[in-house]
Amino acid sequence: MEAFHVSLILFVSRGWDAVTDPLVGYLVSRSNWTPIGKLTPWPVLSMPFAVLSYLLLWFMPQGSMSQAASVAWFLTAACLFETLMTCYHVPYLSLNMFLGGDHRDRDSATAYRMSVEMVALLLASVSQGQVVAVYNTEKQDACQQLEQVNGISQSTSSPHTALLQGTQKSFLISALVMGALSFICSLVLFFGVEEQRAPICSNEKVRPSYLSSLKLLMCHVPYQRLVLGFLFSALAFQMSLGNFAIFCSHAAGLGPQFQYLLLVLLVSAAVAVPLWQAVLLRIGKKATVFIGLSLFIPAVIIVACWSSNLPVFMIMCVVMGFSVATLFLLPWSMLPDVVDDFAMKNPSCKDLEPLFYSCYAFCLKLAGGLAVGVSTMILHFVGYNANACNHGDGVATALIVLFSPVPITLLLIGMAFFHCYPINERQQGQMTTAK
Hints:
The chain is mostly helical. Helices cover 76% and strands 0% of the residues. It has 16 helices and no strands. Helix 1 (3-29) runs parallel beside helix 3 (67-94) and helix 10 (285-294) runs antiparallel to helix 12.
């Protein structure tokens, strides 16, 4: 599929996600209490269908399909998957406000959740790394055959599709494994988590409308600045790490080492999450955000300048992993403080926690969609061909720009919004006392 059509699918599916995220958050907030809780039924019922829609993303019907039919197939599957994962993700994240305890307990629960999520990403990367290894092996063999036939050492031709059929099967098997694990995790959530009625939970029938609720959230200054800081920071990380694989292959010349570099990055991120949790308890969340995010800037500069030096690349992956852990932990740890601040200033507005989390989760997914979509369009314009054996200097330059200067600019904008974030530890203590 051409890069333009891939970008189209990503943009449209993220646009659809823009509609469904806050809408699902509002519907979850309007849900009634059931014998298994208010939020729990949503992830339990949506996950089986989400697994099926995920499989559709890696499956093509038998027989040849036209380009238009292929775009329609993947666009429908992507929108369906985004919708069902929203039905799972929004109530799951909102459960953090319904586990009982004070703000320190919530911070601890967030740290545990993000630590386990990093371990899950690590395991998934190992599984997916094997799929990428199959693709790289098949492509390398195909390129060698092309060189032998054409007698050209720097071929930019595409290897024959028949030589890469094993890749499609590998991706589908990987999707089955990921789907099965996701379903098991939803069962763990159902049987292992007891949802509690929060003190700010309400049974009142009169509640703000959907648009009124969105307006209340968007006009809350701490939420505005936290969301914008999170959006630009997430966009910076997604722009850089989203191009990590092809940067290693075509700019750094370290394609065969990619899965090991990714493994080092994720291991360091998983180790860093509990360390950052200890740091934020000592110096506060706002200071920890600035320290952690700042580590990313020198790391990507050094990688861009000395990308072919494997030992240096490995060390910088450790530093980037520590910075990634900051983005995973701190913004999610700061969000409950904003919810408490909103509840204290708007005591008549009840049960809007899922809407807070849904708009926040949308920013993360929007950043991912924009990063991949923009990157794909830029690479398309500079002549990148996913099936080509080699690329010119223009593609390498574009990858370096997408990996370092652009993310640094976006990250500095995000850090400026975090600087304007008004809630500090003293205000947080006052909110706890008021509750």
